[in-house]
Design a protein that fits this description.
The protein has 111 residues and is an alpha+beta fold. It has helices at residues 16-31, 68-80, and strands spanning 34-35, 48-49, 53-60, 84-91, 96-101. It is built from two helices and five strands; from the N terminus they run H-E-E-E-H-E-E. It has a five-stranded mixed sheet with strand order 1-2-3-4-5, sandwiched between helices.
């Protein structure tokens, strides 16, 4: 009898965190980027990078909330390293959104 994993049926369901880490690994490999240890939770922030970009990757089912403060943090850390800041979202249906993060100078709002 065939093993369930051989048939593509996992013996247990992956947690959302495990799914996200697997997707980060696939995204890094497909784009030729280096993964950061602990997905950026350690000394090296954000998920992956190369010599030119610092990338934050999110894995989402149907919706995701993006906070301005997270984008600003990504932008500032990339600027300190003389890299471009990239924010990427991959949805379960295979759609991927990749965007450059920059900062508009001279527009300030307290809202």
């Amino acid at each position: 009898m065939a093993d369930l994993e051989d048939l593509g049926i996992p013996w247990r369901v992956n947690t959302p965190q495990q799914e996200g880490m697997a997707q980060e690994k696939k995204a890094a490999k497909s784009q030729g980027l280096r993964l950061h240890p602990r997905s950026g939770a350690g000394i090296i922030k954000h998920d992956m990078s190369d010599d030119d970009i610092l990338l934050e990757h999110k894995w989402a089912g149907k919706t995701i909330t993006v906070k301005a403060e997270d984008l600003l943090g990504l932008y500032n850390r990339a600027a300190m390293q003389s890299k471009d800041a990239v924010f990427q979202i991959t949805f379960k249906n295979g759609v991927r959104l990749t965007g450059m993060v920059d900062r508009t100078v001279g527009i300030v709002s307290d809202e």
